[in-house]
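From the shared-data thread, chain only:
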Amino acid sequence: MIHFEQFVLQNGLKVIVHEDHSTPMAVVDVMYDVGARDEDPGRTGFAHLFEHLMFGGSVNIPTYDEPLQAAGGENNAYTTNDLTNYYCQLPAENIETAFWLESDRMLSLAFGDKSLEVQRKVVSEEFKEHYLNKPYGDVWHKMRNLAYTTHPYKWMTIGAELSHIENASLNDVKQFFFKHYTPANAILVVAGQVTTGQVKELAEKWFADIPSGNKYIRNLPQEPKQHTARLLEVHAKVPIDAIYKCWHISPRLDQRYYITDLLSEILGGGASSRLYQSLVKEKQLFSNIECYHFGTIDAGVLTIDGKLVKGVSMHDAEAAIEEELEKIKSTAIEEKELEKVKNKTESLIAFEDMSLMNRANSLAFYTLLGDTSMINKELQKYQSVTPADIKKEAISIFDPGNSNTMYYYAGN
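Structure, as tokens:
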């Protein structure tokens, strides 16, 4: 059981406190309810660009890293299609440094043509290095565009096109910041060697005077149900052929999410999974094969991707995958096999909870989802899944009309 207390400042900032007096450290985690799905389709990549800009200093603090390092701390951030998260860890006696830094960049991020130009170049280079020039780097640009016709999961966090970042104006950037990076759209989690009283005092001192901003009300276009299979063939300079197949699945807050998560583990969660055992070890059609999903808040996709052994035809590789899917659709799995993946999931949750940083991050995420106490309920939801649930969900997901397939051929 992970204990926490929560309160809300008058400006709308949600604050969660998790006391852990077994460590001399403290974590300050700020999660903003904005991700790539909230961008204008003609101006994508902004949420990720902000992850870089937020480290460029604020009006009162020219460089973010120096005072934090002087206080013995370290920090990082990440952006997804759903959210943006900034976090730092430092000795608990220096925690006010983190409050000062995080509040100042929420209040007054340093905007200027020079800082924008520097970070725009950094992001552009990242785009080229990881998504244009890297073998298989464009897979998810193409696959998202194939699988989604309407929902903004159509584009990756880095952005749909390099030109969107290259052409971002200072005015565009300012508008995006003042719309999303406000107390009304933020969650502050403080964990470690702290007390709730201390955190209340510091939160009031450093965050209470920041104007609340308007709570962003999300109204995204919903992806219509897919009824017809889609196929894309790609030829690129890559070492070996690969196949990518994905199917639409339920949103994060649906009970079917937990069924799907366990289903992905059964099929492709490591060397003991069905796909790996059958198609890599026994039939030797693939050098590697996985099944996974991205845990997105809105309805996401379940993916199987595999690299073919040289000489194996795409048709034979796909037929072998389909054969394994038919097995899980037609015959209920044994309780023992399901128990194994449940135990693995329980171990992963327990391992994650060992880290103070992970606990703080999870508390922020569940608060964003609308119920902080979910952190203590997740395991129960996995435990309640039955073999019949797995079979039923497999039949629903692996409907041929729900599939998106990409044949990725080695060659020019």
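The radius of gyration is 23 Å.
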